[in-house]
Hints:
Chain A has about 300 residues and is mainly alpha-helical. Chain A has helices at about 5-20, 20-35, 45-55, 65-85, 100-120, 125-155, 160-165, 165-195, 210-215, 220-245, 255-280, 285-305; one strand at about 55-60. Chain B has 24 helices and five strands.
Amino acid sequence: MGTLVRPELLLLHALSLAAAPLLPGLIVRTKALIAGRTGPPLLQGYSDLWKLMGKGAVYSDVTSWLFRAGPVAGLASVVTAWCLLPSWGVSAPLSFAGDLVLFVCLLGLSRFLTVLAALDTGSSFEGMGASREITFSALTEPALFLALATLARATGATSLSGMLGGRMTHAWGAAGSSLALTAVCLFVVLLAENARIPVDDPATHLELTMIHEVMVLDHGGPDLAFIQYGAALKLWVFQALLVGLTLPVRTGGLLADAAAFLMGMIILSMVIGVVESIMARLQLSRVPQLLIGAGALAAFGLILTVR
Amino acid sequence: MIIILVALGVLVASGLGALAAGGRHPLANRVGSLGALAGCALGLAGTAMSRMLGEAPSLRIPWSVPGGELHLEIDALASFFLLLIFGLCLMAALFGSEYLRAHADRKWLGPPWFFFNVLAASMAVVVMAADGILFLMAWEVMALSSYFLVNFEDEKESTRRAGWVYLVATHVGTVFVIVLFMLLGRESGSMDFNRWSGLPGLPPVTAGLLFLLAVVGFGTKAGIVPFHVWLPEAHPAAPAHVSAVMSGVMIKTGIYGLLRVVSFLGTPPAWWAMVLMGIGVTSGLLGVLFAVAQPDLKRVLAYSSVENVGVILLGIGLGLLGISYGEPALVLFGMTGALLHVMNHAIFKGLLFMGAGVAIHGAGTGRIDQLGGLIRKMPIAALAILAGVWAIAGLPPLNGFFGEMLIYIGALEGAGRLEGARVLLPIAALVGLALVSGLAAACFARVFGVCFLGTPRSDEPARASEAGPATLASLLALAALCVIFGLSPGLALSVVAPAAGLLASHSDLTGATALGPAAAQVAGVTHVSMILLALIAALALLRRGLLRGRETRDAVTWDCGYESPTPRMQHTGSSLARPFAEVFPFVMPGRRQTAPPEGHFPAAASLRVVIANPFQEWLYRPAFDRIQRGMSRLRWLQHGRVQLYVLYIVATLIALLAWFMAF
């Protein structure tokens, strides 16, 4: 049932919308630190967004209205998906039984629109990116569903707020091994869905090898700002999901819970940075194996909950 | 009831009228299409009225056919299917009135309208019939009229072949249905459906046999794997509005028959549910994988029908599982989700088949790799088709999403409630459905992206233009239904609720007839859809505000500085399908024919990839070849001398008489 939360919690939720662009900055700083460089400032994401918002736009003469609508609707669907996810140790702004299906499908919608906008340019680069994106996402979606089903079974709830809420602490005691496997699966899904190494390299410079970046080659100005903010928020959403699973701190105090959540988010970003520093990208033909492996882990976790 | 009978009368009479006007094209087209429109509209009104009155009208007239009775009954299940049949046929008739006119200079338009109207009427009789003999007769009329419609362009060899495959497949299925009905008639001593329902004390083995006969017989019509081979042949060959009706509602009569027979057979054991869920996942996965690989627009849609029937059967299987394990939540979500998907699929697949007809007619080809850029040539049709693609990909906030969501929730509920090995079933359903819906989104992103976006890949699509007003009206009406049922899932639910309640009440689970639990999902999805729309509007305003007064320029697509890019350099439909063939090689055995560039100054090179249907390749072709070889030994019986044929008949009659006397 749709339930609206108290005003001070609304403020907290608004904070996550504002903080999302920090995460990519954190990852980049971690990578720079490991490589012995200084790296860009933490707030680089914000200045990039600001710069893009202030620009005009260049459109390919091949494109249609769909190309212009893609970033707008894509960002809107990510924000809507975010509305269903609990963070800061409190329930999501909106939740109902079975909302996890809607959550996954809203993320799918944003991807669908990005792919269509990419194909709208008629560019072979963007076509290639779209092709990789739809192939890999068709495999990450079952993995994500399996992971969420395991959480649902372990906690006995079918809404995201229900399963990542207070019951999670109890569930770790009852089905810890399943949840650990699920966390590994979700981490792989996070890397794949957010165009991270070892699936995609956000720092690459060659169009031929990219996945996500190449699909948005032709966007510019405010459209690109929407896309980049949407990507940051998507990273936030997946990290919040994983933090909600692995760090289910419920002291009862709002501040303590929120602080624990924030710590979790920062640590997870740094872990992603470390993974990106010590791993190379997988060969593209190997990526499906990784994703199917992640799905199999989640399936194994789900079967472990049966007794 | 009276109104619906009048509607059937109008359909048949106008069909005959169109046939009589056969040679004079404008008149035949007008009589046939107006009759179809009037008949379907009347039928819709009649069905809606009987639903509002909340009664189940029935009609019994004694009949001279041995063992049969003219017995029609419209219960909640029948009235749900009647709504779909009349509704989609109405839209298809509107579309067809303009679509067929393009063929007026080469074809007689009387016969296609006659068969179309008879097809609509016979489908309506199939779901209303409450008598075995009447059902079988309507079933056969439905099969034959659609066969003649498939053969519309019979000057093409491929069309005649497609019609032949369809005719054989549908009759193989009908054989199973006939045996099923004969057995039911023997068990109950009557061909009356009312006597069949709740057959007392049917032994489990008999009930199981009857169930399997129903699965094969009705499954062939519905297009389940492995009996699906006729769909990708027949649907592409038929005219667009006929494919829409066949794929949107005719194959659903198979689902109807299955549901009806299962409701006769009492409480289902768990293995029935397993059979249906197994078939559902297999059909869903194979259907969507074949769909991804197809190079032809209408074949993609045909295989996608196999996929969607799989999703529907998965929902029905979950429902039956809930009945046999006594879990009302599973019954509710599974059955309701399945019926919602039946309705949604009728809407968006009807839309997509007719949209494909517009695209193919406009661009002169249905080969995906030669299309492109149609969104600029036919912006309104493309907008409607985008709605259909969005819906069939199962994405919120359009209608395709909610039915699948209920099936997901049913599986999640099952995974949460069942214990022990039983829990594996809903988990398998969950994984299967997730894989299917992910692949469906990929499949239709490919289709829409390649056909409608980018630049035209050959000369024909570049010359395409917008379709006519009646065509656009039918496309937009169906697209509007996709949006309305998507934004207001409660409305969609209220259409299927009586039928779902009927199916659930056969389970003796009275609590499941109330649709209470789904109310939470209805409210939640509605809220989220509103938030999504509000956000899109706000962001669009923000973007417009930001870009106001700033420079927006047109340029070429980023090409890495290459001098002369051509449309043929775009990513093609085949290139989008290839990664899937690599991930699932066992499903899509591709044959590559390559002629690589050779020599120091290579001239021509080619690469051709043919992706075959393994069932046709490895199962049906060898089987039918063998049957043909075996049958050729009996060919001496067939020699064309009529007097000897008459002798055969007499001999058979005497033999039967002797057999009858002896026992």
